[in-house]
Amino acid sequence: MLLYSKQAFTILKENPLISVISIIGTALAIAMIMVLVISYEVKTANYKPEVNRDRTLYLTRGNYVNNYGNSGAYNSFYLIKEVFYPLQTPETVTAVSAWNEKLISIPAGENEYKADVSYTDERFWKVFDFRYLTGKPFTEEDVQSGIKKAVINESLARGLYGTTDVIGKPVLISYTEYIICGVVSNVSTLAEAAYAEVWLPHTTTTFHKNEQTENTLGSFHCYILAHSKADFQKIQEEAEHSMKLFNANLKDGEYKLNGQPETLLLQIYRRGNEQANVSHIILRYAIVLSILLLVPAINLSGMTLSRMRKRLPEIGVRKAFGATTISLILQILYENLVLTIMGGILGLIISYLAVTLMNDWLLSTDTSNLRDGVASINAEMIVNPMVFIYAFLFCLVLNLLSAGIPAWRTSRENIVYALNEI
């Protein structure tokens, strides 16, 4: 193998233009594919604070239906409390009213900020794992008592007080005074479920009751943390049963979950009341990846075949000394793999640069434009072992597609014809 590697680098030096074109072609192909992979990983993989994405079920919008029509919106806290809090199978269930823009300041302070505020319960801090700089979250007793405590992010703490050492200090939220109990690291808007700049107990404010929908619609999302993914079906069945009991007590209509609670992947691709089709999602990705692999593979295959034609005399000599077709194919594939991996490494670097520099465009979400936060990314999001494994696998596939046929055709050339090329 070492000999083949040396030979691959020798070929690279002998044909610098073709080699550079091959590497760049491979790099661009891998870069486009890896941008898709990284974008998918950032939206679905586990990282702080959403470390439990793979064992969380999501419920966002629902529908209240009666004889007068069909109303769709987020859920009320009342519905989540009555239907989902009592579930026995999950580890815990939390309710979050997110993306409430509020005016933030401090008493006698000159600076005012607009910040995204989430109202939630104490269970929220069990589902999501934040990095605490100082302090701690509000507790169950705090929520039940309605005490005005607040957890804020690092940027807001520094903007208000110039430091993160702000535990016990007051903050005015829409001119109502809260006491800061915790400061956490900034959360990217890509972590949609956990994102906010300020987190408050839901009991510190009054939410509008929608009497026309029997208080089923509101502003809350529900996140259900399972002990493991194996419990998903049981949780969904239990939730459906609980929903039937709830609907039986409604006077005029019924509430429909539309296939929820569901996994994050299905939630991402949900369109209104329509549940996403997993097979269509997979097919879509498969078609895109196939095109991104086949098109450059066809172009690189022609260049590889041209390079192999120049090496016919060498191949003829090797066959004359007993080299088998299989050994020749493996040699050509290995040599081409060295160039492909070089292109793959360059492509991976390009993909990271593209995702980092164009994250607002490549990684935008349906609601990111409505928020004051930033779709920031960090190493934990994109430096994932699976990303490198995917990159290497795509390099292998591209190598087989671009070099497999030329290697097979060249290795099968008649020995006499090959030797006459000398």
Q: What is the fold's blueprint, element by element?
A:
Elements: H1 2-14, H2 16-44, E1 56-59, E2 61-66, E3 69-75, H3 77-83, E4 92-105, E5 113-120, H4 124-127, E6 132-135, H5 140-145, E7 149-153, H6 154-161, E8 170-173, E9 176-184, E10 198-201, E11 217-218, E12 221-225, H7 232-248, E13 253-256, H8 264-268, H9 278-309, H10 312-320, H11 325-357, H12 359-362, H13 379-382, H14 385-411, H15 415-420
Helix pairs in contact: 1-2, 1-11, 2-9, 2-11, 2-14, 9-14, 11-14
Please give a handful of descriptors for the protein shown.
13 strands, single chain, four-stranded antiparallel sheet, elongated, 422 residues, 48% helix, six-stranded mixed β-barrel, alpha+beta
Structural notes for this entry:
This protein is an alpha+beta fold and 422 residues long. 48% of the residues lie in helices and 18% in strands. It contains 15 helices and 13 strands. The protein has a six-stranded mixed barrel. Helix 2 runs antiparallel to helix 14. The longest helix is centred in the last third of the chain and has 33 residues. The protein is elongated and about 90 Å long. 37% of the residues are buried.
Count the beta strands. 13
Number of helices: 15
- Strand line-up of the largest beta sheet: 4-5-10-7-9-8
Strand content: 15-25%
Can I get a quick summary?
The protein is an alpha+beta fold.
